[in-house]
Design a protein that fits this description.
847 residues; five-stranded parallel β-sheet; three-stranded antiparallel β-sheet; 8 strands; extended
Length: 847
Amino acid sequence: MTAAADAHRLTVVAAPAGYGKTTFLGDWARNCDLPCAWLSLDRFDAQPARLFQGVVGAIQAAASQLPMPGNNALLALDQSLADDRAASYDLLLGALEQLTEPIALVIDDVHLAGPELSSGIVGVLVASAPPTLRLVLSGRGHPSIQLERHRFGEGLGQLGSSELALTQDEVAQVAYALGQDASFDAEPLWRLTAGWPVAVHASLTALAQGRHVPGRTTNTPPENLPLSDYIAEEILDQLDQPLADFVLRATTCDWLGRRLAVELHGQPDGGLLLESCLRNGLFIEEYEYRDGESMYRWHSLFAAQCRRILERRDPLLAERLHRIAARYYQDTDVSECVNQALQGQAPRQAVVSVGGHWLEFLLRNGAPALEQLCRDLPAPWNTDAEMLMIRSVCRELDGDSGGASELSQRAMARTADLDAARRGMLDSCRGLFEPVPATAAGRLDLRLPADDARALPEFPAEGHPGTPSTGMFLLAKAEFRLHRAGHQATLLLESVVADGGGLQSEQAETVAEAEMALAYAVAGDLVTADELATQALEKADARGWSSQNRMAAAWLARGIAHYWRDELKGARAHLVKALRLGDKLSALGALGVVYQVLVDCASGDESHLADSSAALESVHNRGLYGVSWNDFHTIATAKLAEAKGDLDAALAIVEPMGAGGHAPLVDTLLAELLRRGGEISAAQRCAGELTSQHRNRYLDTSMSLTEALLAHGNRDEARTHERIEHAVYRAEPQSVLRPFTERRDDIAELLIRHAVWGTTHESFIAARMAHHAQGHPHLRTRSYWTLTDREREVLAYMRSVMTAAEIAEALFISVNTVKTHERSIYRKLGAAGRRDALKTAAERGIV
């Protein structure tokens, strides 16, 4: 406050009731270095003569405290306002001009003076007072004077509720002062009250009083703070009756727009009264929504207390207003509709909203949240047939096929209670999964012939969510849950997007595109995955929800793509984003944790390894994934041990897994780990388990390199070169680089031999050889450093059969520059030509 008063001629302190404005300014005035005048206003101060008398009297009292040069004229002023108001104002301004030292004038409760404040002496002082007067205006809302000239001109000091609210530490200090011990946790109370001082004090007082009540927990904030009487007397009773009535109606919802305000108020001036609430400092803030539309948010605790007041005064009106709000949100916000409908004693309205829009809710919040919403309905609606069938879909998506079947059977036993429309909706939900046969292991098998009539359920032509696109989308999500290769999910989601809006909402289409990006990433098409994920995130950005959990699939897709391209920094950033937005206990969240482990093992950052290890353990044995999560947890734990340099421990960890027969990603990692540990037979059996139809591009690349190294160990040169060529063939179109980098110590020499042996992918192999040479400083001899970085790059490409023109194209330099580097290499190595240079470089350990 001192800084604001020193820097600005005018400071405004505006905050709702109960924020301690008077106490705060009183403490400041008592400790202020300046002589400080104080004036508290009431409703009668709207009279110009009374207000002038109060202002002059307060200033004179402050000026008389200390002998100051130039205060004679000020002390000689007549406090009564003359008939010529302008002359009286001029006399006061002239007297203030003669002061040689500044004084401060605090005018408290300016909101009580009403709109006449701007035309009286306070408005004159705001506009024309000399710098020797530091004016501080305090009130509940914005004072009815023009402030923009100060804001954008000489400056304006401002303090609001955010500055006056108590911090968490301050709440703890108040609690200690009111008798709580050091174990008191201030955070719940701080979050409940948002630091509103009067609410904090009321809660702590109630806790202190409850200390003597048997069985009462004294360190838990009470559910119903004793604030309703304070709000009724100190806030609502101070308002004009129409505005007070509007506040009680409009606080039915914490969030509302102008149209809902009109419906709750029952009069067309609801929007204008919203603006009046803002001006009067009534615990409400304005937020910009879409297309310039504004949304308004009440302080949640204030709104809750207002609802209690209305329920006490007129319970039937309170219920009716909740039903109005439920109808308003029925098609736009399922959660809020359910909340309002239940408070309005209208559970059927909640059921209608859930039944009509469960798919949007599922896309936005996930299956667990949707099932919980259905379970939270009161009896008998929580066992309604349609709600049970929706819960069945949720269980199926989360991998609990047994639970899904049980709920489906319970739903079918209650269908007689449904009308025709709701029976159609139930059949749509039932058709999503029941037509799909299960394997012997009890898991969904989506691999059906294209002409199989059972491949997709039949849906009614009208009514949401009964669309083929909905079924395909949810079946694709179930396919992800099984951690399969992703091809079936890709085909399903392609059909969804090609359906041209079958999901009946733009947000659903965008989410489907994000899921399809992940499907392509899992299927091995990294380029398309990255492109689709980027498109989905751009669309989400345009709608303002790219940082919400529905886009976690897009971030995960980008993380997977960047990992296999060996772009570890980008991979980790995308995976962290995916895990922060998504649910770690979901199948995709678990997959994200596994990839985070792989990225951190590749980078070797010790702090990141600790983080990923903790994240891995946090999801272990939690959630339903449809396949054995233990396999993923085991291989990831083994990779962490390997990254820490303990290969024996890693082999001991994977020993119970045997040799293959797991998910494709698990078998790929397991085979390479077994090979490195010298378990050759087990590694070969593991590689044989992962048949070609289960390998996507990057898994095939990785396993093929493992097979090449196994063949090399068996001195099978033909098999070695065939597997390397196949790995390169699979890797080059998608820039799958991680498997080469991971095995560079083992394959560096094999790549050189393979280049001499012959390949149709010379540029890719030469680039890998150059990268390996740059990544191994421990292999370099002193003579290596006689070559420049560019010469070492050119030398690496010279090991292939590429021409100088092809090397130039690969390095984005001219042919003449390549030839200049070649001549320099020959000179430094004492070589007569290319073959001689490569031989000398090999002898000296340069390559």
